[in-house]
């Protein structure tokens, strides 16, 4: 039942937001997001790691077709629900003092999207999962399209088309799988789409082979994995900062989570057949993203390509099919979400003060803004995966997983850390150090509201870095279950 | 049956209302009448099959459901007729009466059990539509549309009638169940070619009525010239009734394996061609109205998939899918045409740029249009998604995977043209011609709100009506 409340509360709040105007809408939206966070934390506190499928709720949705509204959480879902509910208030706070037209609609869309995201992470029925997958897409399309930069119409159109085409392939696969299932436990329908039935299908190797690509298409576009990434840098750059944060901080995790929940255990032979190819694509993405990031002149684009590189490593960890790799992906999803949101926030803060994102125009911010420098440095080192930060735990486990699968791949993927240090520290050097430029002469340090965004993020950078076991412990059971399903068939 | 009688009587009564010369009375009166008929129609729900006129007409759940769709659609569409009323044109009562009479035809089409009733139903519906297409008397385009629609329509009605005659010749009866029996147990093999030719000619006639390719060519031109209000009626009510009739014909008349060999490949080819021409045609349009016309062709294609994949009964997954699809499609189309009419009336333009910046001047109109476009494109959260989902599932279940793959690719194409109005409304700036807010009466606002709400409810809780047949 708690899951249902977690799902319905944001959308209900979004509808109520219609009655608020301007500043009141901002406060109300932030309050609603905080309530959601409290609910999620409450769920985490009462969560028992030894049980699967907790807080579950199963009710007929489309009775004639055997499709149920089945939601529930295991450790992995819970981690991502925590990430979502933690980042949404942060993102709302980050929008504070921005000039936004039609504020109440903007915030309502963010909250509406939260429902979709929580739905994706908790759905236990294939069609519900697909439904939520698209529910998360529609608000972000409008957030990016209506409030975005100059080129927004073209860029968001590409984004929408890419993701919807990818997910239609997934839907096709789900429909095929649905007709392979038997009748539901109750009711008259001859098929059902529960996740448990999908896990227990007897599919031939050939079937799994093409089903793999249909399902993977949706996730590969969303993450995005090379060569399905071409929508990503433009969309990240053109979107308003809050939308970019939603896209990179949470939405990208839908792809990784989808692979873990709806790909590996559903078509395990398909996965083992294509595992090598996907790993190679992921590693190409790691290197490619990093190399392009080095050449970037635009701070936002640089972070976008860095994100592409990092998500490649997460995908590689997942497709190593090792416990350590999957665990690494779980915790890295948290770490990356926190770091990338922080980085985009700082990029936005700089852009708002100077009116430019071009690295060459910036310089010497340290002198005017020491607090900003410290915050930036912490988040940056987290992204570079320095020990004691959150990034280190995730990347170390991921690389260990890939290494366990294939030592060469592990070695090549490991270059990501070095390359990340190259492009991020170079950017830091040019933006924060060095001589002042005409743009940065009157730079002011962070305001209280901005600190309120960054402090929680920085606390978590160290918290996850110092006590990773709290989080790893949560996802351990689910990861083991997933791997058992893979091995079983 | 009650609804047929009531609609005819109310249609006549409405003509007399015209004598009062009180145009403001007409719209509420028509809405009241439709609400009444809608309620009366529901009385027959789950009452079992009741036959009338020597079994020529059968009222069962199937006919009640589709009657409900056409009446609800008309009810929600009628608020957008207000421009006529405001213009103070004479004889407005006739338009409303013609609408009610055409609904009589629509009800006959969904309840027929005898080919003559089918024919009479189609004619009753069509003749009213020929007149209404030309109702904008002083507009050349409207006259052209009416003439085109009338010439083509009467020509294909002739073909349909010819087909009915040949089927009668081969089987000796007009009664659906008797034809079906005769098709399955042919007395004389030499009559089989006659039967098959009759069947194919009937396919042509029905294909024209639902604008399936290659008999769709009239659709864009006629829609463009016809006043938007009646174009909306054509693409929703006529289509829903047409498909109900078509489905009944397929299911009850031609189920025999030998006959399937003739019409199934034909229908499959028509279906694929309709999807292709409808979607590709829509991409190339610059006028929203023409885009909607091609979109109505492409939706005929999706509905044809349901016909191809039917599983032999009026209660099966396929009939349910067609019912759901017709409702979701009609609601979304009425919303789209409704917004377009309001915008086009004031701004005097029907192209995409006419919608520029609508989100700023009229947030409600833009929102409703967006919901309608997403529904027509089949994006989740809207009824259109589940409509497509049920149709495609029914087809996959019956083994038409190739056709479904093609349809899915086509619906990817359709996203392109359905997003264009959304982009225009939300992402383009207004210019001199488009910065005035559109005037919307509270009546119309309410109707638009209900249409959007209905679309979302169908998209979130499809279980409410998904398996009722």
UniProtKB/TrEMBL annotation, chain A:
<dbReference type="GO" id="GO:0042773">
    <property type="term" value="P:ATP synthesis coupled electron transport"/>
</dbReference>
<feature type="transmembrane region" description="Helical">
    <location>
        <begin position="371"/>
        <end position="393"/>
    </location>
</feature>
<keyword id="KW-0812">Transmembrane</keyword>
<dbReference type="GO" id="GO:0016020">
    <property type="term" value="C:membrane"/>
</dbReference>
<dbReference type="GO" id="GO:0008137">
    <property type="term" value="F:NADH dehydrogenase (ubiquinone) activity"/>
</dbReference>
<feature type="transmembrane region" description="Helical">
    <location>
        <begin position="330"/>
        <end position="350"/>
    </location>
</feature>
<dbReference type="Pfam" id="PF01059">
    <property type="entry name" value="Oxidored_q5_N"/>
</dbReference>
<feature type="domain" description="NADH:quinone oxidoreductase/Mrp antiporter transmembrane">
    <location>
        <begin position="123"/>
        <end position="416"/>
    </location>
</feature>
<dbReference type="InterPro" id="IPR000260">
    <property type="entry name" value="NADH4_N"/>
</dbReference>
<dbReference type="GO" id="GO:0003954">
    <property type="term" value="F:NADH dehydrogenase activity"/>
</dbReference>
<dbReference type="GO" id="GO:0015990">
    <property type="term" value="P:electron transport coupled proton transport"/>
</dbReference>
<feature type="transmembrane region" description="Helical">
    <location>
        <begin position="210"/>
        <end position="231"/>
    </location>
</feature>
<feature type="transmembrane region" description="Helical">
    <location>
        <begin position="276"/>
        <end position="295"/>
    </location>
</feature>
<dbReference type="GO" id="GO:0012505">
    <property type="term" value="C:endomembrane system"/>
</dbReference>
<feature type="transmembrane region" description="Helical">
    <location>
        <begin position="302"/>
        <end position="324"/>
    </location>
</feature>
<keyword id="KW-1133">Transmembrane helix</keyword>
<feature type="transmembrane region" description="Helical">
    <location>
        <begin position="243"/>
        <end position="264"/>
    </location>
</feature>
<feature type="transmembrane region" description="Helical">
    <location>
        <begin position="76"/>
        <end position="96"/>
    </location>
</feature>
<feature type="transmembrane region" description="Helical">
    <location>
        <begin position="105"/>
        <end position="121"/>
    </location>
</feature>
<keyword id="KW-0520">NAD</keyword>
<keyword id="KW-1278">Translocase</keyword>
<keyword id="KW-0472">Membrane</keyword>
Automatic annotation (TrEMBL), chain B:
<feature type="transmembrane region" description="Helical">
    <location>
        <begin position="446"/>
        <end position="468"/>
    </location>
</feature>
<protein>
    <recommendedName>
        <fullName>NADH-quinone oxidoreductase subunit N</fullName>
        <ecNumber>7.1.1.-</ecNumber>
    </recommendedName>
</protein>
<keyword id="KW-0812">Transmembrane</keyword>
<comment type="function">
    <text>NDH-1 shuttles electrons from NADH, via FMN and iron-sulfur (Fe-S) centers, to quinones in the respiratory chain. The immediate electron acceptor for the enzyme in this species is believed to be a menaquinone. Couples the redox reaction to proton translocation (for every two electrons transferred, four hydrogen ions are translocated across the cytoplasmic membrane), and thus conserves the redox energy in a proton gradient.</text>
</comment>
<dbReference type="GO" id="GO:0008137">
    <property type="term" value="F:NADH dehydrogenase (ubiquinone) activity"/>
</dbReference>
<keyword id="KW-0520">NAD</keyword>
<feature type="transmembrane region" description="Helical">
    <location>
        <begin position="92"/>
        <end position="110"/>
    </location>
</feature>
<keyword id="KW-0472">Membrane</keyword>
<feature type="transmembrane region" description="Helical">
    <location>
        <begin position="229"/>
        <end position="250"/>
    </location>
</feature>
<feature type="transmembrane region" description="Helical">
    <location>
        <begin position="116"/>
        <end position="134"/>
    </location>
</feature>
<dbReference type="GO" id="GO:0012505">
    <property type="term" value="C:endomembrane system"/>
</dbReference>
<feature type="transmembrane region" description="Helical">
    <location>
        <begin position="63"/>
        <end position="80"/>
    </location>
</feature>
<feature type="transmembrane region" description="Helical">
    <location>
        <begin position="322"/>
        <end position="343"/>
    </location>
</feature>
<feature type="transmembrane region" description="Helical">
    <location>
        <begin position="262"/>
        <end position="284"/>
    </location>
</feature>
<dbReference type="GO" id="GO:0050136">
    <property type="term" value="F:NADH dehydrogenase (quinone) (non-electrogenic) activity"/>
</dbReference>
<feature type="domain" description="NADH:quinone oxidoreductase/Mrp antiporter transmembrane">
    <location>
        <begin position="113"/>
        <end position="412"/>
    </location>
</feature>
<feature type="transmembrane region" description="Helical">
    <location>
        <begin position="194"/>
        <end position="217"/>
    </location>
</feature>
<feature type="transmembrane region" description="Helical">
    <location>
        <begin position="399"/>
        <end position="419"/>
    </location>
</feature>
<dbReference type="InterPro" id="IPR010096">
    <property type="entry name" value="NADH-Q_OxRdtase_suN/2"/>
</dbReference>
<dbReference type="GO" id="GO:0048038">
    <property type="term" value="F:quinone binding"/>
</dbReference>
<feature type="transmembrane region" description="Helical">
    <location>
        <begin position="364"/>
        <end position="387"/>
    </location>
</feature>
<feature type="transmembrane region" description="Helical">
    <location>
        <begin position="146"/>
        <end position="168"/>
    </location>
</feature>
């Amino acid at each position: 039942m708690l899951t249902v409340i977690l799902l319905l509360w944001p959308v209900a709040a979004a509808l109520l937001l219609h009655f608020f105007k301007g500043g009141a809408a901002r406060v109300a939206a932030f309050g609603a997001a905080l309530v959601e966070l409290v609910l999620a934390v409450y769920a985490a506190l009462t969560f028992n790691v030894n049980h699967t499928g907790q807080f579950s709720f199963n009710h007929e949705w489309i009775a004639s077709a055997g499709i149920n509204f089945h939601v529930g959480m295991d450790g992995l879902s819970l981690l991502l629900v925590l990430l979502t509910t933690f980042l949404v208030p942060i993102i709302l706070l980050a929008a504070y003092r921005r000039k936004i037209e039609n504020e109440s609609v903007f915030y309502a869309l963010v909250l509406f999207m939260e429902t979709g995201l929580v739905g994706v992470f908790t759905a236990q029925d294939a069609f519900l999962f697909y439904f939520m997958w698209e529910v998360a897409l529609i608000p972000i399309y409008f957030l990016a399209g209506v409030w975005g930069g100059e080129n927004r119409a073209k860029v968001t159109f590409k984004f929408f088309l890419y993701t919807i085409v990818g997910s239609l392939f997934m839907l096709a696969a789900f429909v095929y799988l649905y007709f392979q299932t038997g009748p539901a436990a109750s009711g008259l329908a001859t098929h059902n789409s529960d996740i448990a039935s999908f896990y227990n299908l007897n599919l031939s190797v050939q079937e799994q082979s093409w089903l793999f690509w249909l399902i993977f298409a949706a996730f590969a576009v969303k993450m995005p994995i090379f060569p399905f990434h071409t929508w990503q840098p433009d969309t990240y750059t053109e979107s308003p900062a809050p939308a970019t944060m939603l896209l990179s901080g949470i939405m990208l995790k839908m792809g990784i989570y989808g692979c873990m929940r709806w790909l590996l255990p559903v078509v395990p032979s398909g996965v083992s057949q294509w595992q090598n190819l996907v790993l190679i694509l992921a590693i190409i993405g790691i290197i490619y993203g990093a190399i392009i990031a080095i050449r970037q002149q635009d701070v936002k684009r640089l972070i976008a390509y860095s994100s592409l590189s990092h998500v490649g490593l997460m995908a590689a960890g997942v497709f190593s099919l090792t416990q350590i790799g999957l665990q690494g992906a779980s915790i890295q999803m948290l770490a990356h979400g926190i770091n990338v949101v922080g980085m985009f926030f700082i990029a936005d803060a700089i852009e708002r003060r100077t009116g430019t994102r071009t690295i060459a125009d910036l310089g010497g911010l340290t002198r005017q803004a020491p607090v900003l420098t410290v915050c930036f440095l912490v988040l940056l080192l987290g992204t570079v995966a320095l020990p004691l930060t959150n990034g280190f735990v995730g990347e170390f486990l991921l690389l260990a997983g890939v290494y366990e699968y294939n030592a060469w791949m592990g070695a090549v993927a490991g270059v990501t850390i070095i390359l990340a240090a190259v492009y991020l520290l170079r950017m830091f050097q040019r933006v924060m150090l060095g001589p002042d430029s005409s743009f940065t002469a009157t730079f002011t340090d962070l305001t209280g509201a901005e600190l309120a965004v960054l402090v929680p993020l920085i606390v978590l950078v160290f918290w996850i870095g110092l006590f990773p076991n709290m989080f790893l412990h949560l996802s351990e059971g689910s990861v083991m279950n997933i791997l058992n399903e893979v091995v079983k068939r | 049956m009650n609804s047929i009688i009531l609609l005819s009587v109310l249609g006549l009564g409405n003509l007399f209302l015209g004598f009062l010369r009180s145009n403001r009375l007409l719209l509420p009166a028509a809405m009241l009448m439709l609400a009444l008929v809608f309620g009366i129609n529901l009385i027959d729900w789950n009452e079992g099959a009741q036959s009338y006129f020597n079994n020529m007409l059968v009222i069962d759940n199937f006919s009640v459901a589709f009657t409900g769709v056409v009446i609800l659609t008309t009810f929600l569409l009628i608020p957008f007729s207000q421009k006529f009323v405001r213009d103070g044109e004479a004889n407005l009562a006739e338009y409303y009466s013609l609408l009610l009479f055409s609904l009589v035809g629509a009800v006959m089409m969904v309840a027929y059990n005898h080919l003559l009733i089918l024919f009479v139903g189609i004619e009753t519906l069509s003749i009213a539509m020929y007149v209404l297409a030309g109702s904008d008397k002083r507009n050349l385009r409207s006259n052209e549309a009416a003439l085109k629609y009338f010439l083509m329509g009467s020509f294909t009605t002739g073909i349909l009638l010819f087909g009915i005659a040949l089927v009668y010749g081969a089987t000796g009866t007009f009664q659906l169940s008797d034809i079906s029996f005769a098709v399955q147990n042919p007395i004389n093999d030499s009559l089989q070619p006659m039967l098959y030719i009759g069947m194919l000619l009937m396919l042509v006639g029905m294909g024209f009525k639902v604008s399936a390719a290659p008999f769709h060519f009239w659709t864009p031109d006629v829609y463009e010239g016809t006043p938007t209000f009646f174009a909306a009626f054509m693409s929703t009510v006529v289509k829903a009734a047409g498909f109900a009739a078509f489905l009944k014909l397929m299911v009850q008349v031609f189920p025999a394996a030998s006959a399937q060999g003739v019409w199934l490949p034909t229908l499959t080819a028509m279906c694929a061609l309709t999807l292709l021409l409808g979607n590709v045609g829509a991409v190339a349009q610059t006028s929203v109205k023409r885009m909607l016309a091609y979109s109505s062709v492409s939706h005929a294609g999706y509905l044809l998939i349901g016909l191809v994949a039917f599983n032999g009964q009026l209660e099966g997954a396929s009939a349910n899918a067609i019912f759901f699809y017709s409702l979701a499609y009609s609601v979304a189309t009425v919303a789209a045409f409704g917004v377009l009419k309001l915008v086009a009336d004031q701004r005097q333009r029907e192209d995409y740029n006419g919608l520029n910046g609508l989100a700023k001047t009229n947030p409600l109109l833009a929102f409703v249009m967006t919901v309608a476009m997403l529904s027509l494109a089949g994006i989740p959260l809207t009824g259109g998604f589940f409509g497509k989902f049920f149709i495609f599932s029914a087809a996959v279940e019956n083994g038409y995977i190739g056709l479904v793959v093609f349809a899915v690719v086509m619906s990817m194409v359709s996203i392109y043209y359905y997003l264009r109005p959304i982009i225009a409304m939300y992402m383009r700036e207004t210019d001199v011609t488009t910065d005035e807010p559109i005037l919307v009466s509270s009546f119309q606002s309410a109707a638009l709100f209900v249409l959007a709400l209905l679309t979302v409810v169908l998209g979130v809780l499809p279980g409410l009506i998904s398996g009722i047949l």
